Amino acid sequence: MKVPPSVGAAIALGIQILVAVCLFALISGAAILLNWVTNLCESRDLVPGLVVQGMHALEFFLWAADVVCFVLLIVAEIRNFFNAVWNGERS
Predict the structure, then answer these.
(1) Domain assignment present for 4
(2) If you compute the radius of gyration of the chain from its CA atoms, what whole number of angstroms results?
(3) Structural domain boundaries, residue 61
(4) Of 35, 55, 85, 86, which one has the fewest beta carbons inside 10 Å?
(5) What's the pLDDT tens digit per position in 9-62?
């Protein structure tokens, strides 16, 4: 029994989306942990204000880069899915 290429492409797309969501959650968790540490350091005056500002900037950059990479990965995988389906139906 031959499986259509679109089924394999759909399974690959689902796996890639699952991986993207797991990576997004992992990196977002790191940003949340950094936020917690930053707030702790700020509330107890453990580090100078410039360091706290740097930690907040790093947290924002980490989250923004996470969102951009997530979107790019999903768009690339959807494009690959449509290419596989289109090429499978043409042949």
Answers:
(1) no
(2) 20
(3) 13-90
(4) 86
(5) 889 899 999 999 999 999 999 999 999 999 999 999 999 999 999 999 999 999
**Identity of the amino acid at 36:** W
pLDDT digits (tens, 9 = 90+) for 61-85: 999 999 999 999 999 999 999 998 8
Output the pTM of the full model: 0.80
> Given a cut of 80, is residue 91 above it in pLDDT?
no
**Is 1 within a domain?**
no
Q: b/e per residue, 75-85, with b = 16+ CB within 10 A? A: eebeeebeebb
Give the list of residues 6+ apart from residue 20 with CB closer than 8 angstroms, or none: 70, 73, 74, 77
Query: In Å, how far from its chain's centre is CA 44?
Result: 32
